[in-house]
Design goal:
With 154 residues, the protein is α+β, with helices and mostly antiparallel strands. It has helices at 45-56, 58-63, 76-86, 99-103, 145-153; strands spanning 15-18, 23-25, 33-38, 66-72, 91-94, 107-112, 115-120, 123-127, 133-137. The protein has a 7-stranded mixed β-sheet. 31% of the residues are buried.
Length: 154
């Protein structure tokens, strides 16, 4: 299990496939602030709420030169459908092997109806232009989260 990441830590490198099948490498975004948010599954109620709020906050985020990237264990194809269905204007990353979720310490044991399983704990990392974590939002509640992140950007 990865150590818990905290503000000041270097953001772990991730190289994943995005929603259109292209390669995405986090370190290529140095010089820009990045909102990296992990969510359990595309096109489920909470994840849709969270994604649509980030979409609706895109103008102020762009003004601040901030890139939003959503990460889930879904396939690129599932992410492309999700993105198109809701008109999402930011990149979605396929973490099918959950390597990124593990690197960021958000691949956790969860429980539903008494059944235990491994999955993504909804968490957002605000990464500074220098590649260091500026803020961590843990156990995120989808409604109101984009506003929370915008406030954290200052």
């Amino acid at each position: 299990m990865a150590n818990k990441l905290k503000p000041g830590d270097s953001a772990p490198e991730i190289s994943l496939t995005d929603d259109d099948g292209s390669a995405f490498t986090l370190s290529e975004l140095r010089g820009r602030e990045v909102v990296l948010y992990f969510y359990p599954k595309a096109d489920t109620p909470g994840c849709t709420t969270e994604a649509c709020e980030f979409r609706d906050a895109s103008a102020p985020l762009r003004q601040k030169n901030v890139l939003v990237a959503g990460v889930s264990p879904d396939t690129s194809q599932a992410l492309a459908k999700f993105k198109k269905k809701y008109g999402l204007d930011f990149v979605l990353l396929a973490d099918v092997e959950h390597a990124a979720a593990e690197a960021y310490g958000v691949w956790k044991e969860k429980s539903m109806y008494g059944r235990k399983y491994m999955g993504v704990e909804r968490t957002t990392f605000l990464i500074g232009a220098d590649g260091r974590i500026r803020q961590v939002f843990e156990k995120v509640k989808p409604a109101g989260h984009a506003a929370q992140v915008l406030a954290g950007l200052g």
